[in-house]
Hints:
Helix content: 40-55%
Distance between the termini: 33 Å
Order of helices and strands: HHHHH
Strand content: under 5%
Oligomer: single chain
Amino acid sequence: MIYERIRNLREDADMTQQEMADYLFINRRTYSGYETGVRMIPPEVLGKIADYFQTSVDYLMNRTDVKAAYPKKR
């Protein structure tokens, strides 16, 4: 699976792959593999990316076109 939306969100935020990798505490090559679909993104990392961009995991995975994050549980 290619995570095109993750790349687009990162580029829209004027972030480099290295900056995103630093935020996630991973190697840049690992992050690059996520964007290109060479590596599967672990659920906890996918959640951190969704939180950072204030969107849902479903949006990142092209399961919905609704960009807004789901409301937090109380």
